[in-house]
Predict the 3D structure of the following.
Amino acid sequence: MVVPPSPLVPAGRSPATIEPPWITIRALPESVGVARRYARARLRAFAEEWVDTITLITSELVTNAYEAVDSAKLDEAEQVIRFGMFCTPRWTHLYVRDSAPAQPCQRDAAETDVHGRGLGIVESLAFWWVQRDGPGKTVHALVAAPDVVLTQADIDRLAVNL
């Protein structure tokens, strides 16, 4: 697969309706901003508070993927990140996939640390998050809409398709 040098590769949709729309972005520092803008554009009709939360989680997950790919020294064709989201009025499912072998690791960062807060932020804002392995990894996060209480049944319905 040849990926053009721009941070945004043409968007696509899976033929399977259960798979959320996605974009494939180059693993570059500016790709985090591309993913944030994509998320904001997809969420225009939703409450600003929810949009801010989803944008922050997007930023943290894509930053983690970028750093994992960057440190793995992968071939150029593997230096991509797939970011997808599926939105409903009750919740948004985000996922970020990369080819790096390193697994995400939640750390206890000190106030002065520059890195190490990403997954803690995701855990505090998302209703649920999980990592799935394959070649590389995919990190999923489920974010409830404001004033919506999600249940284990909501997670179970979503997890069947992961």
